[in-house]
Amino acid sequence: MPAGPTLAGLALVALVLAALPSAWQSVPVALGVACGLYAASGMGVTGGMRALGGQVWAVRWIIVVTAGGQLLFLGPEAAAANTARVAAALVVAGLVSLTTPVGSLLEALERGLQPLGRIGVDPARAALLLTIALAMMPVLTRLAAEVRDAQRARGLRPSLARGALPLLVLALRHADDLGDALAARGIR
Fold first, then answer.
1. 21: number of Cβ within 10 Å
2. Residue range 143-166: average pLDDT?
3. How does residue 44 score in pLDDT terms, banded at 50, 70 and 90?
4. Which residues fall within 8 angstroms of residue 93, CB to CB, at 6 or more apart?
5. Are 140 and 171 in contact (CB under 8 A)?
6. Is the distance from CB of 22 to CB of 77 less than 8 angstroms?
7. How far apart are CA 139 and CA 178, in angstroms?
8. Residues near 97 by Cβ (< 8 Å), separated by ≥ 6?
9. Using CB atoms within 10 A of its CB, is residue 22 exposed (0-12), middle (13-18) or buried (19+)?
10. What Rg do the C-alpha atoms of the chain give, in angstroms?
11. Which residues, 6+ apart, have CB-to-CB distance to 37 below 8 Å?
12. For the chain, what is the mean pLDDT?
């Protein structure tokens, strides 16, 4: 599917997921939406489910933190529903970056953001910012895997507490390199 309709579909799915009530019934609906979209993504059912598993694994800490906070303040029913909605939205956003080339996303976002030019927003810069933000999820996943592998190589059991600082350093280094690359191309 072209990038424009894909992004519009992502926005629609995110709105539908956000509109689900904080009730037990929302959990299978949210999970079904994510599973259905991955199965229909053109990767085949097996490939889609494998990709879905990879995306869920990539956002597992976000899921854990979301579930913990929700359980602490809202109780089990709302925690399960809200966590399922957030997880489904994240993995569906990951599906967009898996199935749509970055160049196509950039062009579609720039076209879609043209009306904001009337109020002083540069659509090209805003589209670049949004595209970079979408592309960062796989990069951060790769960096987190590198940190875990380095911990294992040193004989340490991977942990969030020990891995947070190295991940932050790697992410900031990547952001700095990305900024240098954009500046070298004349993008400020």
1. 12
2. 82
3. low
4. 10, 14, 134, 137
5. yes
6. yes
7. 12
8. 105, 134, 135, 137, 138
9. middle
10. 18
11. 13, 92, 95
12. 80
Total residues found in the chain within this entry: 188
**Region of residue 187 (left: phi > 0; alpha: psi -120 to 50; beta: else):** beta
Q: Which residues contact 98 (CB under 8 A, 6 or more apart)?
A: 41, 51, 55
> pLDDT tens for residues 54-85?
777 777 778 888 888 888 888 888 888 888 88
Q: Return the amino acid letter for 19.
A: A
Is 81 in contact with 17 (CB distance < 8 Å)?
no
Would you say 167 and 143 are in contact if contact means Cβ atoms under 8 Å apart? yes
CA distance 30 to 17: 6
Structure confidence by residue, pLDDT tens digits, 1-33: 677 777 777 788 888 888 788 878 888 888 888
Looking up tokens 């053109």 gives 42
| Helix, strand, coil percent content, the chain, rounded in steps of 5 | 85, 0, 15
pLDDT at position 150: 86
Residue 172 pLDDT more than 80? Answer: yes
Q: Which tokens is 187 given?
A: 């993008």
CA angle 11, 17, 21 (to 5 degrees): 145
